[in-house]
């Protein structure tokens, strides 16, 4: 019984690490200052309100990652471009949106340049 409980704790720990830190493959990064970002149909800003108000992205819908679970039904399009402040926020947001049937076409991390 003790070994089973310990194994369950390890599995949960590894799952949480996967959700937050394991990179998502196949989604291109677009620099926030590029011309490509202006042409995107729906830009979803999942940064918290303090970050998004300091450095606003023109034409984006602001919905912090903490509010996605409650308000994802209000996102008007199924294809989105995600704007996040760091890699962990990007991973959590993209995984959540994919699980809810959204197609994430690209992303932007505002605190670093795309390679």
Could you explain how this protein is built, in words?
The protein has 115 residues and is of the alpha/beta class. It has a single domain (25-109), classed as Rhodanese-like domain (Oxidized Rhodanese, domain 1, 3-Layer(aba) Sandwich). It has five helices and four strands. A four-stranded parallel beta sheet has the order 2-1-3-4, covered by helices on one side. Helix 3 links the parallel strand 1 (43-45) and strand 2 (60-62). The longest helix has 20 residues, at 2-21. Keywords: Membrane, Transmembrane, Transmembrane helix.
The chain-level mean pLDDT equals 87
Number of strands: 4
Coarse structural class: alpha/beta
Strand coverage percent:
15-25%
Multimeric status of the protein: single chain
Transmembrane segments: 6-22
Organism: Aquibacillus koreensis
Keywords: Membrane, Transmembrane, Transmembrane helix
Protein name: Sulfurtransferase
């Amino acid at each position: 019984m003790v070994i089973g409980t310990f194994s369950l704790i390890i599995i949960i720990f590894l799952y949480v690490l996967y959700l937050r830190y394991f990179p998502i493959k196949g989604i291109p990064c677009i620099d926030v200052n590029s011309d490509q970002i202006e042409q995107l149909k729906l830009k979803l800003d999942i940064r918290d309100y303090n970050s998004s108000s300091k450095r606003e992205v023109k034409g984006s819908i602001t919905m912090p990652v903490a509010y996605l679970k409650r308000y994802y039904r209000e996102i008007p399009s199924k294809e989105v471009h995600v704007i996040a402040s760091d890699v962990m926020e990007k991973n959590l947001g993209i995984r959540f949106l994919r699980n809810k049937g959204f197609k994430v076409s690209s992303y932007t991390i505002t605190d670093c340049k795309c390679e």
